[in-house]
Specification:
Layout (H helix, E strand, L loop, with lengths): L5 H4 L3 H8 L3 E6 L2 E14 L26 E6 L3 E7 L7 E8 L5 H8 L16 E4 L9 E4 L16 E4 L3
Antiparallel strand pairs: 1-2, 1-6, 2-5, 2-8, 3-4, 4-5, 7-8
């Protein structure tokens, strides 16, 4: 399958996030390529979204979020988990999609640990040459997508209740 082009990501995050469902997250290893179907994501939408790291402004950690869509934003939390995000939208508008589940892994920390995704991927383009990319796949019908509030962002007040989490329905 073809790799998603930068133009796919250089659109508003709430358009990109549900369209990532069903696509293949690909990681190149010494012994081959791992492919996992994306089944859960969360959108983080710019400077007003208090759950979005970009809402706190530019920092060395968040600088990649202020670039154009199509680059990986990988950060460390709880002293033990790497979180994999793909930057979306236009340059200077910090938005990204957190990949929460793909293949057999139902949590963002489990996913990155199993696939060997680390800080080394941060700031890299989502292309084969970087060793981490997303391949196109069939479009998922809207009726097969569930939307809910995001997880673990209660600190964001009203933004925590926004239905910015997208999942493949199990029906």
């Amino acid at each position: 399958m073809p790799v998603l082009p930068p133009s796919f990501y250089q659109r508003p995050v709430l358009q990109v996030a549900p369209q990532l469902l069903g696509k293949k997250l690909c990681v190149k290893h010494e012994d081959g390529i791992s492919r996992a179907t994306i089944f859960e994501v969360e959108a983080y939408d710019g400077p007003l979204d208090l759950a979005c790291h970009g809402a706190r402004g530019r920092t060395p950690r968040t600088e990649v979020m202020f670039g154009p869509g199509g680059y990986w934003y990988v950060y460390f939390i709880y002293g033990m988990y790497w979180m994999l995000n793909i930057v979306t939208g236009a340059k200077d508008y910090p938005s990204a999609v957190l990949i929460r589940g793909a293949g057999e892994w139902d949590g963002p920390g489990k996913l990155t640990r199993a696939l060997g995704i680390t800080r080394n991927h941060n700031g890299q383009p989502a292309k084969r040459a970087s060793g981490l990319w997303i391949e196109d796949a069939a479009v998922i019908p809207q009726k097969s997508i569930r939307r809910t509030a995001r997880i673990g962002v209660a600190y964001a007040g009203e933004w925590a209740a926004k239905p910015y989490r997208f999942m493949l329905s199990k029906t």
